[in-house]
Amino acid sequence: MRAPVNVTIWDGPAGPAPAILIHGTLSWAVSAFERQRPLARRRRVLLPDRRGYGRSPDLDDGQVTSDYAVDARDVVALMTGGVHLVGHSYGGTVAMIAAAARPNLVRSLTLIEPCAHQVASDDPVVAAAVQDAREFMSGARRWTAQQYLDLVYPAGQPRPEPADRLQRAARTALNERPCWLADLATQPLADAAFAKLVIVGDWGTVPGGYRPGMAQVMERVAATVADRIGARLVRVPGAAHEPHREQPDAVNKVLEQLWSAE
Predict the structure, then answer these.
(1) With a threshold of 0.90, does the pTM exceed it?
(2) Kind of pairing, strands 195-201 and 106-112?
């Protein structure tokens, strides 16, 4: 049996259904969602560190350092009594799998810039991005964690602290199971009665460290996912791949509105 993951809990009123926030790659929960702390004024918020990140144990697997399918099982174990699920990037893949597995325990599902590329793989732009990612990662996996960080965070760009936790996150990210190759079942989510929301940045300004063309790719993935699962699509001005960090007030407002309708 795998050791449980680390879960940070922001205590809030016990009456409303709690929220589970699932972070993306190269991050950990309290760093990724630090600007969502105000959401705990109205409900409990659970922030699990995915395996290989933060204070959670490593994934006991000789092939990969992180696996969305394992993460989804960890999240399902936290989904007692009904929850609001939020997943960013890689965490969006995790949230989709968990919600499809136990729709009866989901009050709402929010996907922030989900890297669910296979859902939109018939789009030539997305298909090209997947191939680019395959080629990029085949070379990147030979890099050191520091080399990867230097690419993702160019000189002068702030980096999450503490440094040792970021180094560990980089090592995990270099060898995790690619979420953009996940074969995701969208019909169970489309059939589910709970509210669904997909949030995407407008990518008006593209920060350093992203692959070329990512703005167009994420727009097409987000729009396709929203259409396939019957979700409302919200575009956040002034944000790129991290709307919840770049425009936290706007994202928090949308989440509170969604959750208040439970």
Answers:
(1) yes
(2) parallel
pLDDT tens digits along 134-168: 999 999 999 999 999 999 998 888 999 999 999 99
> Is 1 contained in some domain?
no
Residue 49 lies in a domain: yes
Q: Which domain holds residue 42?
A: 7-260
**CATH code of the domain containing 74:** 3.40.50.1820
pLDDT digits over 81-115, tens only? 999 999 999 999 999 999 999 999 999 999 999 99
Report how far residue 29's alpha carbon sits from residue 78's, in angstroms, rounded to the nearest whole number.
15
Structure token digits, residue 61 = 């697997």
Q: Half-sphere exposure of residue 74, counting CA atoms within 13 Å on the CB side?
A: 28
Strands (E), the chain: 7-10, 19-22, 45-48, 83-88, 106-112, 195-201, 232-236
> Counting beta carbons within 10 angstroms of the beta carbon of residue 107, is it exposed (0 to 12), middle (13 to 18) or buried (19 or more)?
buried
3-class SS of residue 172:
helix
Distance (Å, whole) CA 163 – CA 94: 26
Per the structure, the count of domains in the chain is: 1
Q: Which of 239, 243, 246, 130 is nearest to 197 (CA)?
A: 243
Report if residue 34 sits inside a domain.
yes
Contacts of 222 (CB under 8 A, 6+ apart): 111, 113, 114, 198, 199, 200, 233
The answer to whether 240 and 201 have CB atoms below 8 angstroms apart is yes
